[in-house]
Amino acid sequence: MLAIYSHPGESMEYTPGTDVASGDVIVIGDTVAIAVRPIPANELGAVQVVGVFKMPKAVLSTSAIAIGVKVYWDASAEVVTTTASTHKVAGWTHAAAAATDPTIFVKLSRV
């Protein structure tokens, strides 16, 4: 069978176990996604898996991040990091951020 186009794939259906607020970062398997609308617990909603998002990053003297760098989501600290460890790939930086910047622009990506 040949592959048949389904849809652009910019969002993914998701049913959370607890309420999700707009802007929440969600890890689904190996995918980092963003809720763009609130999703009540146990109700089907959609989360974005493609796009550029302004995300929180650690504000430390050593946490400057250049443009085009692969970054990861640290779910326990709820920040973007350049440390792979056990964190999930969030994507690539879409702009640089100084160590003192509390946020950074990230293009979501699974690779």
Fold blueprint:
Layout: E1 11-14, E2 25-28, E3 31-35, E4 45-48, E5 52-56, E6 70-74, E7 79-81, E8 88-93, E9 103-108
Antiparallel strand pairs: 1-4, 2-3, 3-4, 5-9, 6-7, 6-8, 8-9
Number of helices: 0
What is the third-level CATH name, the topology? Answer: Virus Head Decoration Protein, Chain: A
Main-sheet strand order equals 5-9-8-6-7
Number of domains: 1
User: Class, according to the CATH hierarchy?
Assistant: Mainly Beta
Helix content estimate = under 10%
CATH arch. level architecture = Beta Barrel
| Biggest sheet overview | 5 strands, antiparallel
What is the mean pLDDT? Answer: 93
Taking pLDDT < 50 over at least 5 consecutive residues as the criterion, the unreliable ranges are: none
Query: What is the percentage of strand-forming residues?
Result: 35-45%
Instruction: Sketch the topology as an H/E string, one letter per element.
Output: EEEEEEEEE
Distance between the termini: 26 Å
Radius of gyration: 15 Å
Total number of strands: 9
Decide which structural class fits the backbone: mainly beta
Shape descriptor: globular
Briefly, what is this?
The protein has 111 residues and is mainly β. It has strands spanning 11-14, 25-28, 31-35, 45-48, 52-56, 70-74, 79-81, 88-93, 103-108.
